[in-house]
Structures are given as C-alpha cells and as structure tokens.
Amino acid sequence: MKLFRFTFPLRAMLAAAAVALLAGCAASGNLPPAPQQAAVPDYKYLIGPGDQLNIVVWRSPELSGTVPVRPDGKITSPLIEDMVAIGKNPTELAREIEERLKKYIKDPVVTIVVQNFIGPTAEQIRVVGQAAKPQALAYRQNLTLLDVMIAVGGITEFAAGNRAVLVRRAEGNAQYNIRLRDLLKRGDVTANVEMMPGDVIIIPESWF
C-alpha cells in the first residue's frame, strides 16, 4: 500500500513541478508578453482522430456517408478500406479518395465536409492548471485567448491569472506571459492575443 502511494502521484508531482517552474519565470518578469498577432493567414484545417467526415460522391449516394476517423488515423467507407486521413486537409483527402474510386466508377467527384472538429493532437490548444475546466481544444483560424478561456469556463478563484504562461510549440516551445486576470476580470482587451496551433496555456495557483 505504501509503495502504491509513493509511485502513483509521481507523474503528477513532476507535472506540478514543471508548472511551478514556468510560473516562477513569469512571476520574476523574465517572460516577454505574448504577441497579439499570431494567426497564420493561409492556415488549412488538418483532419485528426475523432473527427467525423461527411463524404459525398457526386451521383453515387450509395458511396456517400459519414464516417469517423479512427484512433489510428484511418477511415473506412464503401470501396475504401483503411485509408489514412490524419494530417491531411479535406481537399487532399477528397482527391485521394477520387483516385481510389477510379477503379470502380468513371470520373468520380468527391467532396468532404468535416464535422465534430477535434483536429490532430499536435495542433490542439491545451489548457492546464487553474482553469475551471482544463481541457484540449481544436484549433481554428483566428482563435483568440478570450475564445479559449470562454471554452474552458474561465479561471478558478485560486488562479494567479496574470502569471499565466503561454508555451508556443510552433516557436520551439517559446514561453510568454499572458494576463488572464486583466482580460477576464477587468475587461482589458489589450491582454487578448491570437492563438497558434499547438499552444499550451499554463495557469498557476496563487501563492496567497
């Protein structure tokens, strides 16, 4: 029993230590403020596990339908088995399905509409620490910090919102300070910033 109690929280302890380290950096003023402009103008949504794909084959309703992207990143639909979908945009996948279907029908035309957006794991926005509902969110074009905080229900009463840290994977895990309390409690729109795919928001607990 003692062994279980020692080993079970080890991962949580390491995660907490990392959060504390980042929070300490933010509190010491070593982190620069997050840039307000960050969106990629030509961003294209990439399909991820858990997405639902509505595949429409023109003039072939028997080949059309909605299919899930499996945890292994593949899909199966009529005449199409185990095709990799993860990491492709809907247009790319539609063209690949057309190539497969040419064996069976003449000049197939395929359209794909993504439903239940989840996206690739590497592009999800993750919110950890003192958020009301810590979670991972699908990235979308022009997503802002305020949008993310609304989705997670804001911050807890114990959060040190102005010591929150943004880790930007797209910039080699660069770290920035973000002012969540100013944004959420004081309505300071200058604290709102654009998000990028793969961003991680770490919200530390207040020291007092």
Offer a quick outline of the entry.
This protein is of the alpha+beta class. It contains five helices and ten strands, in the order H-H-E-E-E-E-H-E-E-E-H-E-E-H-E.
SSE layout and pairings?
Layout: H1 2-7, H2 10-27, E1 52-57, E2 65-68, E3 74-77, E4 80-84, H3 90-101, E5 110-115, E6 125-129, E7 135-137, H4 145-151, E8 164-168, E9 174-178, H5 180-185, E10 200-203
Parallel strand pairs: 6-10
Antiparallel strand pairs: 1-2, 1-5, 3-4, 6-7, 8-9, 8-10
Strand content: 15-25%
Order of helices and strands: HHEEEEHEEEHEEHE
Tally of helical segments: 5
Mean pLDDT: 89
Radius of gyration: 21 Å
Q: Which geometry do the CA atoms define? A: elongated
Count of domain modules = 2
What fold name goes in the CATH topology slot of the largest domain?
A: Outer membrane lipoprotein wza fold like
Task: Provide the low-confidence segments as ranges.
Answer: 1-23
Q: Termini, distance in Å?
A: 34 Å
Q: Identify the CATH architecture of the largest domain.
A: Roll
CATH homologous superfamily of the largest domain? Outer membrane lipoprotein wza domain like
- CATH top level of the largest domain is Alpha Beta
Strands in their spatial order, largest beta sheet:
7-6-10-8-9
